């Protein structure tokens, strides 16, 4: 177990503002913020949730008899590996990224030889090797916490927080109407029923694990991040022992300010007004059906009157 490795792992249901929150944290001088979704899952994940969520978004499982190189290859990490190996087909090809996946693998193997193979050590080596191999990463000399984001990974928060004693999980929740309206814009969107199954499972696990790991699982609403990112995310920084900084006021990638979050996420304009307008894109029937599915969580997250404001 890597007892010194400090990780802040973000999770959120699809189109719930996880990428947006990730980008607001990006410029923090004390954070190594992963450049894309850090999809640390492997295809060996197999449990009751495997039919609901893709394995690339899950906390990984590794073969007992694998080598370090095989462990590295098993980590799906699709967005980063595509950008590094076939940049011409990456949705992030317009962003400069001096990075070799082969070099990262070599650094990873070296680190695991020193630490030994375990899930905790493998994940720690994966994050550390990423930033060692990223040549044009904007270093401040102050970075002490690694920050990753993978959709829906809050369902594995108990594993993350047990494996890594210095880790924290930040769960992001967005009102389900805006979230579903954005997911409808995907080429092959989930049905409303299937989407709301995932949305409610995310909130269920976040609330349960927050009780089980007090002070280590944090929940923020996208609405609060959009209204005042400095206040909302500054409180999270203080909770994990970091200072709030002005960088929290704007979304960035590798320290460069972004005019819109896309293509990191479907939220193009990170404002409360755009968030509310997105909810209003739904039909009255869709809004009512979502209200029924989400009923158990609307009071908890102060969304009961969201559509009336």
CATH superfamily: P-loop containing nucleotide triphosphate hydrolases
The radius of gyration is 19 Å
H and E order: EHEHHHHEHEHHEHHEEHHH
Count of all domains = 1
Task: Write up this protein.
The protein has 309 residues and is α/β, with parallel strands linked by helices. It has one domain: P-loop containing nucleotide triphosphate hydrolases (Rossmann fold, 3-Layer(aba) Sandwich), CATH 3.40.50.300. It contains 13 helices and 7 strands. It has helices at 18-25, 68-74, 78-85, 101-115, 119-133, 157-163, 176-183, 192-212, 222-227, 229-239, 272-279, 284-293, 295-298; strands spanning 7-12, 31-33, 145-149, 168-173, 217-221, 252-253, 256-257. The strands form 2 sheets. It has a 5-stranded parallel beta sheet with strand order 2-3-1-4-5, sandwiched between helices. It has a two-stranded antiparallel ribbon with strand order 6-7. A hairpin with a 2-residue loop joins strand 6 (252-253) and strand 7. 45% of the residues are buried. The model has no long low-confidence stretch (mean pLDDT 96).
Produce the secondary structure layout.
Elements (H helix, E strand, L loop, with lengths): L6 E6 L5 H8 L5 E3 L34 H7 L3 H8 L15 H15 L3 H15 L11 E5 L7 H7 L4 E6 L2 H8 L8 H21 L4 E5 H6 L1 H11 L12 E2 L2 E2 L14 H8 L4 H10 L1 H4 L11
Parallel strand pairs: 1-3, 1-4, 2-3, 4-5
Antiparallel strand pairs: 6-7
């Amino acid at each position: 177990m890597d007892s010194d490795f400090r990780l802040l792992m973000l999770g959120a249901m699809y189109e719930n503002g996880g990428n947006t929150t990730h980008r607001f944290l990006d410029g923090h001088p004390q954070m190594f913020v992963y450049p894309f979704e850090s999809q640390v899952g492997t295809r060996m994940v197999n449990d009751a949730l495997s039919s609901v969520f893709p394995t690339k978004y899950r906390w990984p499982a590794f073969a007992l008899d694998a080598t370090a190189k095989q462990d590295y290859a098993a980590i799906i990490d699709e967005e980063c590996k595509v950008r590094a190996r076939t940049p011409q087909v990456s949705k992030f090809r317009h962003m400069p990224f001096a990075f070799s996946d082969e070099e990262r693998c070599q650094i990873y193997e070296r680190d695991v030889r020193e630490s030994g193979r375990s899930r905790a050590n493998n994940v720690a080596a994966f994050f550390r090797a990423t930033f060692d191999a990223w040549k044009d990463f904007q270093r401040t000399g102050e970075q002490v916490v690694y920050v990753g984001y993978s959709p829906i990974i809050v369902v594995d928060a108990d594993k993350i927080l047990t494996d890594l004693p210095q880790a924290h999980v930040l769960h992001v929740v967005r009102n389900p109407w805006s979230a579903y309206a954005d997911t409808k814009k995907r080429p092959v969107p989930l049905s409303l029923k299937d989407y709301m199954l995932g949305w409610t499972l995310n909130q269920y696990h976040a609330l349960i694990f927050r009780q089980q790991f007090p002070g280590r699982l944090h929940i923020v609403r996208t609405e609060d991040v959009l209204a005042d990112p400095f206040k909302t995310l500054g409180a999270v920084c203080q909770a994990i022992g970091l200072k709030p900084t002005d960088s929290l006021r704007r979304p960035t990638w590798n320290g460069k300010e972004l005019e819109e979050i896309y293509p990191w996420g479907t939220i193009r304009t990170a404002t409360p007004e755009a968030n509310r307008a997105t909810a209003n894109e739904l039909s009255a029937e869709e809004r009512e059906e979502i209200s029924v599915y989400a009923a158990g969580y609307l009071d908890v997250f102060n969304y009961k009157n969201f559509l009336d404001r």
